[in-house]
Specification:
binds adenosine monophosphate; 10 helices; Rossmann fold; alpha/beta; single chain; 38% helix
Length: 284
């Protein structure tokens, strides 16, 4: 089966408008391509819940810093179309950069508060890039359900706030993190790792588990929980800890004392990759 691969904004909007006019519900799955089984879980969920599923494949230059991996980011549209089709997509939208940013854009979407913490500090401008491209995709797609992974916890929070604040007719659906056999979160950036580096990647989930266990034993001091996670990552020779945080899931800020539901987040550099993971946890 071949599904349509659209490159033009006008074609996408017209096709989705026609589907909705015929009574169909629309699911949107924004991605940067290099689709793996983690993306496939989002697409399959969208296919379960919506009549039409549009997977967008766009490596968004706006969300990469000057020294980040925009050029090196893996791109294989044919493989992505196959993965999307197999997972239940109805169409792929893969616009060229010139279609998304024709060169005269002066508007950037900035979500304050949620973006000046965590990855927002480590990657200045990153979430402005994310919020801007997602807002554009929502404007093009129209009324829909949009599926995002909890793996990118802060991104999901930013997108939810942006969609609510700008009154997009879009229902945001958060989907659980899909993991490999050793519980490493599936990520397009895992492809950057050699075998030895890949074998070191479970250090992220081990660090998160150590933090969650401390909380379950009644620890309420965020510094101790952070330290426990940092120590686990530091014990892995191939990993450098970039971030180990415990935050309130609504504000993304670290409370003075941990109480109730929190989210643990870890970012680590392993070889050429910066990997992230997170886990919900609660104090006992
Ligand atoms: P990306 O292509 O990395 O920008 O990811 C596109 C979407 O897929 C985002 O909403 C991600 O959070 C989601 N995603 C990526 N990896 C996973 C995973 N392992 N499990 C669930 N969702 C994921």
């Amino acid at each position: 089966m071949t599904i349509p691969v659209l490159e033009r904004i006008g074609e996408l909007s017209a096709l989705l408008d026609a589907k909705r006019a015929a009574g169909a519900t629309v699911g949107l799955v924004p991605t940067m391509g290099a689709l793996h089984p983690g993306h496939a879980t989002l697409i399959a969920r969208a296919a379960e819940e919506c009549d039409v599923v549009c997977v967008t494949v766009f490596v968004n230059p706006l969300q990469f810093g000057p020294n980040e991996d925009f050029e090196a980011y893996p791109r294989d549209l044919d493989a992505d179309v196959r993965t999307a089709t197999d997972a239940g997509a109805t169409m792929v939208f893969a616009p060229p950069v010139t279609e998304m940013y024709p060169g005269d854009q002066s508007t950037t979407v900035h979500v304050s508060g949620l973006t000046n913490v965590l990855d927002g500090l480590a990657r200045p401008g990153h979430f402005d890039g994310v919020a801007t491209v997602v807002a554009k995709l929502f404007a093009m797609a129209g009324r829909c359900h949009a599926y995002f992974g909890e793996k990118d916890f802060q991104q999901l929070a930013v997108v939810r706030r942006m969609a609510a604040d700008l009154s997009f007719p879009v229902e945001i659906v958060g989907c659980p993190t899909a993991r490999d056999h050793d519980e490493v979160a599936l990520s397009s950036r895992n492809a950057y790792l050699n075998a030895e580096e890949r074998a070191a990647a479970p250090v992220l989930i081990r660090a998160l588990r150590a933090g969650a266990e401390l909380l379950a034993r009644g620890e309420s001091d965020p510094a101790r929980v952070r330290r426990a996670m940092v120590e686990i990552v530091a014990a892995e020779a191939l990993a450098t800890c970039d971030q180990a945080e415990v935050v309130d899931p609504r504000t993304l800020r670290t409370p003075d004392t941990l109480e109730g539901e929190v989210v643990l987040l870890v970012a680590a550099r392993i070889g050429p990759a910066r990997l992230i993971d997170n886990m919900r946890a609660s104090t006992s």
